[in-house]
Amino acid sequence: MSEETLTNLSREERTFAPPADLAASANVTAEAYDAAAGDSEVFWAEAAERLSWDQTWERVLDWDNPPFAKWFVGGRLNAAYNCVDRHVEAGNGDRVAFHWVGEPADDKRTITYSDLQAEVSRAANALVDLGVKAGDRVAIYMPMIPETVVAMLACARLGAPHTVVFGGFSSDALASRLVDCGAKVVITSDGGYRRGSASALKPAVDEARAKASGEGFDVEHVLVVRRTGQEVSWDDAVDVWWHDVVDNASAEHDCEFFDSEHPLYVMYTSGTTGKPKGILHTTGGYLTGTSYTHNAVFDLKPETDVYWCTADVGWVTGHSYMVYGPLANGATQVMYEGTPDAPHRGRWWEIIADYGVTIFYTAPTAIRTFMKQGREIPDGFDLSSLRLLGSVGESINPEAYMWYREVVGGERCPIVDTWWQTETGQIMISPLPGVTAGKPGSAMTPMPGIEVDVVNDDGESVPNGSGGYLVIKEPWPAMLRTLWGDDDRFKETYWARFRKLGYYFAGDGAKRDDDGDIWLLGRVDDVMNVSGHRLSTTEIESALVSHPKVAEAAVVGAADETTGQAVCAFVILRDSAGDGGADIVEELRKHVQKEIGAIAKPRQILVVPELPKTRSGKIMRRLLKDVAEHREVGDVTTLADGAVMDLISKGVSSGKAAD
Ligand code: ATP
Ligand code: MG
């Protein structure tokens, strides 16, 4: 039997050096690694000094009671002041904070840092009038409109932790989060525009509020932004219009400064693996970690860059790399309300061309969707303003990386593949664009100041060329502090597996290649055991995606009498491949065998029109496993599109499959 923790199947020879001009003027150079290795507390203290503190800290890190960390102990600051006011005070009030683009054509707004300061202050004053004080929780259930960012910053300004719930979630998901974190106020809108039409949000809040009441928990107020103008039902005792209370509030608000460890927000994870966890982030360390990494990884030049992160604000990426990191750095951003295909499939590329976007940060799932549609669509737009591309959320398959590099990046833009989690708060593993020669599919190296390792079952480092568990060995500033109201689950979930060594276990498998660079291999829960070999999902999926007819793939292990488990694959074909032809299944099985070996050859391949994904675009493999093992499909409440599983199950019973 194989001894290995995770089998290393694939090889990659291509590398791309940083562009010379970017390297010459990079915000962060190779020296940062040495500085951080020398004394990481000094390194992080310097990163924290990039922020404005009302009172400086007495101690950088308190790790006396692991796994409960405290960063910048005794320091006091205000997150909203750091993201907004200080830029205005520095004379940059006229700089654009957001170029906001609504989904309906010609629906646009430009918001400067001065505008943002006035609006955040008004909203903060309005929330105070509604009874919100430091420590109260506020839920935000909104579309991608400027008021959403304003609402988050207004909460931060008051020291009232927010919990943003993705606008696509059901009233059940909202209700459970309202109850779990005890939200006093909900901020929402009548609706938002998605896929060309107005979709309602307020009715789900009404339902969620009723459900929460049924469980003995009452929300005090619902603050409603008018976005679409659709009709809403109204409860005078609870509901208030944003335009009544915010627009009429004073644009002056003196902010209070809070302890560095004051809670900033609770974010529920996307729920790929089960019941969502309420991740708690606090203020000083989180803002330090996100603003430092945003500056380093995206090489932001705030005077000239136009930065666009496509993530929904209901996801941690929207928090760390659309709100807190970039705003702390004084960035000019694009924020877009709708979907990439409304009103036409080139909408994103059109926005890049219109605003001269220079830095673009998106998810592999989006890139693969564009690959599916074909390059003619982006080729129709001028993307020459772009200088740097980022990826987050899943491993980027080498083929998708090459497509992103060539078609979107015109072969001149470096790609930063950033590995991190809701829990880590900040980017942990990524190339530095002015330093690292990138490899398609690899997140490369830990960020300066971050101690990551790939270890075996006993917690020992694996040698280069081998796979294992990804762990983080030292605390970092933006780390989660606990799970909301559940310290035991926090310890059990992240710190139990390597308790003696004190490692944080991320739940992901990874390998080191022959150069020691890190490749993410997917969740260890998804590892398949085929004839004693432990196979991870990512490499087999990447092998499938490297076939010219395939755009996306998901693999799972299904029980098998002979091999223990067998590889089952679900693939989406590129539009140009039509139905793939009669032999598509055999062709793909052979392709996997040729690319990475017979052991990984799928027993079964199903061609499907869609894959089940979370709101953040992650494939939910546990649902596919249910299908592959002919079980009833499990909990689908965090699926982006509930109908997808029906489509797949139908496909399975009509059977374009081979055994
Ligand atoms: P839950 O923990 O509830 O299942 P989730 O893990 O999907 O939800 P997130 O915190 O949004 O919620 O996702 C973090 C995970 O996303 C990582 O653990 C990793 O599996 C994956 N991931 C993120 N970025 C990358 C990347 N660049 N390469 C590979 N995987 C990535
Ligand atoms: Mg997770």
UniProtKB/TrEMBL annotation:
BP terms from Gene Ontology: acetyl-CoA biosynthetic process from acetate
Catalytic reaction equation(s): acetate + ATP + CoA = acetyl-CoA + AMP + diphosphate
Cofactor(s) in the UniProt record: Mg(2+)
Domain AMP-binding enzyme C-terminal, first and last residues per copy: 539-618
Residue sites binding ATP per the record: 417-422, 508, 523, 534
Gene3D superfamilies: 3.30.300.30, N-terminal domain of ligase-like
Family: Belongs to the ATP-dependent AMP-binding enzyme family.
Protein name per Swiss-Prot or TrEMBL: Acetyl-coenzyme A synthetase
Protein's organism: Nocardioides psychrotolerans
